[in-house]
Fold:
Amino acid sequence: MAYTQRIPSLTAHGRRAPGAAVLRVLRRIELECQTRAQAEDVADEIAALLPDPIKSRLGLVELLLNAIEHGNLEIGRELKSRLLREHRLDDEILARYEAEDYRARRVRIVVSVAYPLVEIEIRDEGSGFDWRAALARNDDSNDAPNGRGIAIVSRTCFPGLEYRDPGNVAIVRVAWPR
Amino acid sequence: MHEHGALAAWIDSALTRVLADLTRARAILADAMTRLFATFSTLRDQLAEERRLYEITLQQVNGSGEGGEGGLVSVLREVLSRFVQDMVQISASSVKIMLEVEALRGHTDNVAQRGKQIEQIAITTRMLSLNARIEAQRIGSAGAVFRVVADEIKGLAHQSGELSKTIRDALATQSQSLAKASTAVSKLASADLDHAVASHRHLDLTIAKLAEMSASSLAILARIQAEADSAIQALQFEDMLTQLLHAITDKLQVVQTACRTGKIDELDARIQRDAVSQHSLGAGGVELF
Amino acid sequence: MIQVADLNDTVTIQISGRFDFRLIKDFQQLLSKSPRTWVVDFTGVDYVDSSALGMLLLLRERVHGDAQRVLLRGLHGQPRDVLVMAKFDRMFKVE
Structure:
């Protein structure tokens, strides 16, 4: 499984975008996913509701993959580093999907709309993590293969990104400009 | 005639003694008069001179006219006023400068703020390029170009971060200088004017006192002058005494002559004449100067 | 302390306590207004320093030197002494 995301076109998003009228009456959307492919579909759907769909989609996929890999499948940061270096990440992920403890786990997403505000809640079934440390990371010199995802998402797409303790719920707030 | 002869002889010698007394009295009186006159004249002249000088001094101090133009007091007031005007102008400029300095500080803070933002962006960029580099490595040779680009971006981000930091440090120094300038200017802007006000008030009090003193001094001078004047006037009248004594002396001399010569008729005419001139003396008074 | 009333094209500035350099920033902000007349109420002012004079001069500049457009009200005590000494009673209307 290639790690890179597929980059959707802007026109694809444009066709999907519901328009301001719908956004004004929309209140709540609930979604669910388990696999990476599904995560990308969820991201597509939600990004269509946001002002900057391409950037938002990138951030959403990152957060959803985190929820799947680190949350539901409980692959910690250091384990992931090791697996990446050994090129065994994809295999490990596939294996864990079959595991008894993890096969029933899902990532549940709730989108609450109160135009112009949109709030996205991403909940996994893991046991949480030190999200404050993850947000604060700004080391740009070490060559660790992973670990910067949350910091980058917070700095580029979703400023104000935060988690509810113990860290299994990510909360994103986006406002439509007037 | 002979029984009259002894009497006449006695009268003659008595008259001689009286005439001698009169002469002495006239001499004393003349001498006293001359001296008194000289004294009071001198006094009067001195007073006049003193008053003149006093008035000149007063004029120099007070100036002339309502506004006291040209006077020392007016000059002092003008200087004080000018000083205050200058202070006010400086203060107004200082207030403006203060506002400029504050604006500059605000601007500097803004720039510093931007600098911080730039540094944050630089960090994010570096993190992204790091990720990109790692992705590129994972892709393999296909990602080589991508990796190069990612490295370049990282390098540029690094430079921009450094530059931003340099600018921020420079701004920090500038900020310090501005803070100092601000303090210095605010001192200039907020001068206390109470001293000037007190000086002004003191000056006014001094002037009032001066005016008071000069008024009473002039009054005293005037009174002394008046007294000197009336003394001189009185001397004029005293001069009549001299005239009288002169007349008496004359008459007594006539009597003595009459006793010696027996020629009463001719001498009688002289006595009558004196009476007439004395009468005219009493009527008009004498102007000695 | 400054209190401002803006009514009928007249801005009334009421100052209490010391009218000194501490009021410069607030005063500057007031100068962005442009009413027909300004009234500066000195009833509650017990002290002015030279920056107060400076601020008044700035106000005067604001009305382009038209003394009719600035009224100084309630001058007494030290502020009055200072302003009279600086001949400000000739540059502004004084009540």
